[in-house]
Amino acid sequence: MRTPYPEIEPYDSGMLAVGAGQSVYWEVSGNPDGKPAVFLHGGPGGGTAPYHRQFFDPAVYRIVLFDQRGCGRSTPHLADGATLEHNTTWHLIADMEALRTHLGIERWLVFGGSWGSTLALAYAQRHPERVTELVLRGVFLLRRKEIDWYYNGAAGYVYPDEWAKFLAPVPEDERDQDLVEVYHRLLHSPDEQVARAAAIAWSTWEGSTSSLLPQPDRIAETAEPRFALAFAKIENHYFRHGGFLEEGQLLRDIGAITHIPAVIVQGRHDIVCPAVSAWELHRAWPGSVLHIVADAGHAANEPGITHHLVEATDRFAKEG
């Protein structure tokens, strides 16, 4: 069983101005002369964490992490009153290109899980010449049926106790409406207590359902108000707009990247991003490798998920 690499510290970091008053935090660790790889965090709105570096052999990889607009250490932060006007998938792709250029990287491995897999696919389809390989986990194609599964009731059949908590901030006479839209109103309420309660409920719904077995630290992190406000507002913004993608776009345009080596890692019991999306992606991409992990949910730190992610980055390091 592959385990994460030892935690390391960045050897370089900074803030990159990307326009419209936005700056993204970035850091680089590992081998300065190694194989470039960029890690795309989930959410959107989740931010990076030190353990994200541990999926890569630091002796071999030049590991790039960055916090997407409005969250983590990027500025301005959503919890500090930033707007979402200049925050779309296409802005994030432009930020990736600006960062790649800033760091003097010609091509890189792109690694993304959950929303990070969405962004990885969209980036690769826009800039296939910049991608050496793709490592995807917990595939999310951001189709309406995927959003409805998780936010409009079906997933609640598996987690009825947690679903009741998600519904708690929603007025009873609005619970049969599109809850993504209802939550948009709640999250942007002028009443700060209403917005905060909605953000925590939205964020902890994901934190409570992301792994096969409960992870109390994850749940506590998602309930932290500053994190929850950015996470919930950014996610809701993207999901209301279908990720700023045309419906089914990522599968429709898969031909642009089928020449790129790819490994897909998917938990069998993933409630957040059910395995059908990874399966459909793999079926449309014959050269991809799909690992369905029998004893895992959505989280990257579940042992079987981690094993296959590290195995994939080790494989691509050896292949160059």
TrEMBL record:
It comes from the Bacteria. GO terms for molecular function: aminopeptidase activity. Coiled coil: none annotated. It catalyses: Release of N-terminal proline from a peptide. InterPro entries: AB_hydrolase_1 (IPR000073), AB_hydrolase_fold (IPR029058), Peptidase_S33 (IPR002410), Pro_iminopeptidase (IPR005944). Its main location: cytoplasm. It is found in: Cytoplasm. Keywords: Aminopeptidase, Cytoplasm, Hydrolase, Protease. SUPFAM superfamilies: alpha/beta-Hydrolases. Residues 38-301 form the AB hydrolase-1 domain. It is an enzyme of class 3 (hydrolase). The keyword ATP-binding does not apply. It holds the Pfam family Abhydrolase_1. Its EC number is 3.4.11.5. Belongs to the peptidase S33 family. This is Proline iminopeptidase. It comes from Nocardia amamiensis. The lineage of its organism: Bacteria, Bacillati, Actinomycetota, Actinomycetes, Mycobacteriales.
